[in-house]
Design brief:
alpha/beta; about 15% strand
Length: about 160
């Protein structure tokens, strides 16, 4: 059984919008089986979850959460909480995605989608605390992003 995905916008910035959240939800419903088909990592809970809550926040909010739970009060791209009680939580920063995308000539919407997929791969048991583990996580993450991401204008015409 696939977990239900809920996406919440907890930022005052004009982007992303509710339409963006709905679009991501549709993409993730297609991508989730592919993530779950990858060999699970050692700390996987994704297949046991009933609900995944994804919160899109700004840098101030993610920095507060990062400081409170991980003792690092700086903004980051994604934080994942594997609650283990049927709930997984992913928090992503729209501000970080926009800044990184701008600096590297990338599409902001794709970068934010990448952060969400990154969180899902964490819930599937992959870690990124060493270069080897990070490479293993990215080996699952990047093909998912490339296969399933479509921007809103492209997918609405299909």
């Amino acid at each position: 059984m696939m977990p239900e995905i809920e996406i919440y916008l907890n930022t005052d910035t004009p982007w992303p919008t509710e339409r963006t959240a709905d679009h991501y939800r549709q993409l993730l419903e297609k991508a989730l089986p592919a993530i779950m088909a990858a060999p699970p990592g050692p700390e996987h809970i994704l297949s046991h979850l009933q609900l995944i809550e994804i919160s899109i926040v700004d840098d101030d909010a993610i920095a507060r959460i990062h400081g409170e739970y991980l003792n690092d009060p700086t903004a980051t791209d994604v934080i994942t909480f594997p609650h283990g009680d049927g709930l997984g939580e992913i928090i992503v920063s729209a501000d970080t995605a926009a800044a990184y995308a701008s600096k590297h000539g990338l599409e902001t919407s794709r970068e934010l989608f990448r952060y969400i997929v990154h969180g899902l791969v964490h819930l599937h048991g992959y870690l990124d605390s060493t270069p080897q583990l990070r490479a293993e996580l990215f080996a699952v993450q990047e093909p998912i992003v490339e296969t399933f991401y479509q921007d809103e204008t492209t997918s609405s015409s299909r």
